[in-house]
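Researcher: Here's the sequence for the chain we discussed earlier.
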Amino acid sequence: MDFLKNLIKPKKSALSLDEIANMLNTNPEAIVEFENAYHAADFKKGISDNYFEVNAKQASELRENDIVSDEATKEIARKIVNEFISQTVVYSYERETTSQKLIDFTYRIADSEHVKPEDIKALPKSIQPQCTGLYAQRDIPDTGKELLYFLNEALTQTDIKKQKTCYHMFRQGLDILDLDELTYSMIDNNPSSMGNWLPRMTKAVDKYGFFKIPNTKIIKVPITMLQLTRQVEYPMITRTTLDIVDNYCHEVFGLDDTKKYFVKTGIRSNKQDFRNALIQGEKEVKELGEYLLYLHQRDIQMASPLCSPCIYGAGTTVEWVVREFIDDVEGNQTIYHGMPLHTEYRVFVDFDTKEVLGVHNYWDPDVMLNHFKERAESKPNDIDAKHDYITYSLNKERLVDRYEANKDTVTVHVTEFIKDCDDMHGQWSIDIMQNGDVFWFIDAAIAETSAFYTSTVPEELRRKSKENWLPDISLPALACDDTKN
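Model: Thanks. This is the structure I predict for it:
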């Protein structure tokens, strides 16, 4: 069909996107041709020169010819991997047994075995590891003290403009400044990071059994490894360093090269290009660590003074997460380079009053259609926006009907389990994904930072969250009350 060829050309199609969607809606064979035309055009498009449009797998492809063959370097890298493993405690939730535990690797190495800077300097510079379990490059010492200064100013200033400026400096600094122990601890205190809320909710969710939670493992990235996201530009990270991160993640997450995984940082999945989130096949599983490193660094760059607008928060986490991938049982069409269009529900709750404040269609048709259409109209070359607009249009009625049919049931069961979440406080959003007849609890966030909060929760019920960035050293490494093993 010629209109499919027109769709992927830079010039405006003879038919509108809505007209194309209407034609496809009654012709399953045309939908197949449409998908084939889109994927062929997308393949020819290549890798974008916009840093924020390059997905993790594309970034890895640019490094495929880098291979470390030097045996002395490999041996040092192996020791560094063990150093990182020995600093790691993994939070693990197992769906099959509805249990959570901490997997403690801290017994793995003796202090005398640590790699020293002089060991690394003896290697060729192009293949030197750029961090060890104890050492990493840092430009600015005592960043934690600087951040505390700006936080204090934000809390004590009476001038509103100065107060906002100091708060901005504090939040931006959390994302982009070099890490020291205090800065790391403040970031770790972010309640929106998955390790700070999932362990506090699983028992209540499992108690009632209506919602399922994907198998999940969470780590707190060792401070010197996490420093890579702030200190070294990704193209300048050596292959040896990437191999260290890959091998470390493969072991601490207990990866199986034959399985599929869903990956994210403690805050963000970058699923708007689903190639960032879905990991499958032996090659990708073995490279999973460098994907997470790349995505975390890219999130942090959003807070850079060079980024306009400057957006902080996406990188404010010390956690990396690997989850079970939930295979689509419905044969849904996909947007965002492979994300199935499941029906999803965003439920706003108040854990203090134990009530549901409202529920919203995650794939709100007005928001989604406007989003894709604005992109397609403002960027004639954006075939992704055109594809996703048409695909969403074809599925809009199904998604809306299913949402309306089940939103009350979802609300009832969320109301049920939040009553037992005694360790959770404040207002939150809870995301539920429907896959066939199974409802999955997949995400949560502070309500006021979540889309649809103001359009869903009545103004008289809204309460701002209370921020507390000061770490409490008496808390355990992860909020889990099961015994270590």
